[in-house]
Specification:
Blueprint: E1 4-8, H1 13-24, E2 28-33, H2 40-48, E3 52-55, H3 61-68, E4 73-76, H4 83-88, H5 90-110, E5 115-121, H6 146-159, E6 167-173, E7 175-177, H7 188-197, E8 201-205, E9 210-215, H8 216-228, H9 231-234, E10 237-241, E11 247-249, H10 250-261, E12 265-269, H11 283-289, H12 297-309
Parallel strand pairs: 1-2, 1-4, 2-3, 4-5, 5-6, 6-10, 7-9, 8-12
Antiparallel strand pairs: 9-11
Helix pairs in contact: 1-8, 3-5, 5-6, 7-10, 7-12, 10-12
């Protein structure tokens, strides 16, 4: 077992969930996070649970060096995440997602870190020629967004050539959803559930396009599975993280959510700015590492709706719940 883990972005949506999971497993965890979305209280909670928290940016070599000290493994989650956030400021996205990632990788190699887990995305598959046939890790990458293009670029750097002494594993996550300590309502399942729960009219575009989905707790568990695996089974490998049974169209999500809530006003509109359309196979991580997600979109929608009903998020439309 890898005992000392650095999690960049460790106070983020997936990151805080993962940090808690690793702490519960008895690992020593260091979090490097800029707290861009106001997660100071969350960072304090993680520190109280035993994590070392370094407030800093992946573009800051000194912050990286401080956080990297004594790490056996690095989980690199820190990024400007998602297509809208990257499109808003492409220069910053490039500086963080490309430059920052390169800095983390270089520091890990200098420090002799044994393994690095890189958070990538199933968006790398982009617009598939035949989205009805699930694509696996060996399929063609056809990114159609800046965010996915940047993830593909880092994957190629990590997997191409000799990276000794640090070996990398790239994890392509399905679209994430579910309740977490650092909540996000700008993700499709969470957003649709919030809007329909609140009685808002929901406009949906690309309702026939396919995407895979994975609960945030399962995304974190997938990372833990890779950290637990013998190095030779994951070194230089790519794994899709999700379940082959959890590919849905937006149309399907609306049906699931309205069935859970018993209400909902939905209009389908035609827009062209998001042409991604892909079904994904997750058989490799199931067959080779024994990873099977514990949650489904159906249970996740119920979870988000229950949290809203309980008033866990007094203003679920507040800006800090998005990237």
């Amino acid at each position: 077992m890898t005992d000392r883990v650095l999690v960049t972005g460790g106070a983020g949506y997936i990151g805080a969930t993962l940090t808690g999971l690793l702490l519960d497993a008895g690992r020593e965890v260091t979090v490097l996070d800029s707290l861009l979305h106001g997660q100071r209280d969350l960072a304090d909670d993680l520190q109280a649970r035993g994590a070392k928290v370094v407030v800093g940016d992946v573009r800051d070599d000194d912050a990286i060096a401080e956080a990297m000290s004594d790490a056996d493994a690095v989980v690199h989650l820190a990024a400007i995440v998602g297509d809208p956030a990257c499109a808003r400021d492409p220069a910053v996205a490039a500086a963080v997602n490309l430059g920052g990632s390169a800095a983390v990788v270089a520091a890990a190699r200098r420090a002799g870190v044994e393994r690095l887990v890189f958070a990538s995305t199933c968006s790398n598959y982009g617009r598939m020629a035949d989205p009805e046939v699930p694509i696996d890790e060996d399929g063609e990458l056809r990114p159609v967004s800046l965010y996915a293009e940047q993830k593909v670029a880092i994957e190629k750097q990590l997997l191409g050539g000799d990276a000794a002494p640090t070996v990398a594993t790239c994890l392509r996550f399905a679209t994430v959803y579910g309740v977490a300590a650092r909540m996000r309502f700008d993700l499709t399942v969470n957003e649709f559930t919030r809007d329909l729960w609140a009685g808002r009219d929901l406009e949906v575009f690309g309702e026939q396009f396919w995407r895979p989905y994975v609960h945030v707790a399962d995304a974190a568990a997938g990372i833990r599975t890779v950290l637990d695996a013998p190095l030779e089974r994951v070194a230089g490998r790519v794994f899709n993280v999700g379940s082959s049974t959890e590919n849905f169209r937006k149309l399907d999500l609306v049906d699931i959510i309205t069935a859970e809530l018993g209400r909902g006003s939905v209009t389908y509109v035609s827009r062209q700015e998001d042409p991604r359309d892909y079904k994904v196979s997750f058989e490799r991580i199931a067959d080779e590492l024994g990873f099977v997600p514990a949650h489904t979109v159906v249970s996740g929608v119920a979870e988000v709706a229950a949290a809203l009903e309980a008033g866990r998020f007094p203003d679920p439309f507040a800006a800090h719940y998005g990237n």
